[in-house]
Design goal:
Helix content: 10-25%
Shape: globular
Largest sheet: 2 strands, antiparallel
Radius of gyration: 13 Å
Structural class: alpha+beta
Number of domains: 1
Order of helices and strands: HEE
Distance between the termini: 29 Å
Strand content: 15-25%
Length: about 80
Amino acid sequence: DLIKSKETYKEGSIPVNVDGGLLSKGHPIGATGGSQVRTIVLQLRGEAGDMQVKDPEIGLVHNIGGVGLYGNVSIFGR
């Protein structure tokens, strides 16, 4: 329902992967978390250009590495 209603789009209430996700970056192994954090920080600062979400207050990064050996979730706010 969220996808059909476009709520996960950049203009929606729950924007997801507005920068195209990691596949759009060539899936930078070892740099995945850094890339995700950078995206969130740019959003919260209002510096994301064409990918900018309107008035973001919180961002969540989820990463799994080492073939599922470890995982982390980071929540950022302004």
